Amino acid sequence: MSSRPNPPLKCLPSTPTGPYLAEPAPAVTGGGAAKGVAEGVPTAVRPDQQMGDGRYALAWLTISAPRGAVPTATSVCACGRNRFAAGHHKALALIEDHTRHRDLCPLRTHQEGAAV
């Protein structure tokens, strides 16, 4: 095998022969934009297109069960309840507990005590 010749390198621009002074920056005027700069166009802010129906999330149940790994579950509620379980049986128990908490959560019950 013969070695390949190196490809020719790209030529760099020649270096200047003498010292050059930098051009001065344009003077900053205190009044408005520079000449030739486009003026901003005011945009109309549209109201939110998605009208809610008054519902919002209070409780979240997150389950992670990758193949060959230990399953985990996390139950979080807006009332301050935060539970975590690792392992098959504990995760199943937390899922049942989360379902039970949905009926008993103080944020989901009316003043009369009836669940929403």
What kind of sheet is the major sheet?
Answer: 3 strands, antiparallel
User: What is the rounded distance between the termini?
Assistant: 81 Å
What's the total count of β strands?
3
**What is the radius of gyration computed over CA atoms, rounded to a whole number of angstroms?**
34 Å
- Chain oligomer state: single chain
**Number of helical runs?**
1
Report the structural category. alpha+beta
Q: Largest beta sheet: what is the strand line-up?
A: 1-2-3
Shape: flat
Characterize the structure shown:
Strands 1-2-3 form a three-stranded antiparallel sheet, covered by helices on one side. The N and C termini lie far apart (81 Å). By secondary structure, the chain is of the alpha+beta class. It has a domain at 59-104. It is flat, with a radius of gyration of 34 Å. It has one helix and three strands; from the N terminus they run βββα. β1 (59-64) and β2 form a beta hairpin. Residues 1-35 are annotated as: Disordered. Residues 1-10 have a biased composition (Pro residues).
